[in-house]
Design brief:
Shape: globular
Order of helices and strands: HEEEEHEEHH
Number of domains: 1
Distance between the termini: 34 Å
Largest sheet: 6 strands, antiparallel
Radius of gyration: 14 Å
Low-confidence stretches: none
Helix content: 25-40%
Number of strands: 6
CATH topology: Yope Regulator, Chain: A
Number of helices: 4
Strand content: 25-35%
CATH superfamily: YgaC/TfoX-N like chaperone
């Protein structure tokens, strides 16, 4: 599955407004890592936003839908469809929500090398 490269470029610009980031291939798409956490990601045609478990219900009320990986619901991460992300202001709002959460979390400790 390929990800939407046009959407990824728009997301890249929106993330850059708020924070330094690292791009990582993830879930068949691309994830934007801020402060060692996935803030947002781009899939085939949707934006994935890490909103945290506390922000999950409000994100659904605000127009996102639950993120699913197979049978599992990804509580704390929501998907935002192209009908919403086609609007630049809405896209930036969702991206900034994920970036702000990632910045508020303590960085993850480095992984220990396998022996």
């Amino acid at each position: 599955m390929a990800y939407d490269e046009v959407l990824a470029a728009r997301v890249r610009d929106a993330v850059r407004e708020r924070a330094d980031f690292v791009e990582r291939r993830m879930f068949g798409g691309v994830a934007f890592m801020v402060n060692t956490h996935m803030a947002v990601g781009v899939g085939e045609d949707e934006l994935m936003v890490h909103v945290g478990t506390e922000g999950h219900e409000q994100a659904v009320v605000d127009g996102a839908h639950e993120m699913r990986m197979g049978e599992r619901t990804m509580r704390g991460t929501v998907a935002v469809g192209p009908d919403v992300t086609s609007d630049d202001d809405a896209l930036h709002s969702w991206v900034h929500r994920g970036v702000d959460l990632a910045l508020a979390l303590p960085p993850k400790p480095p992984k220990q090398p396998r022996t």
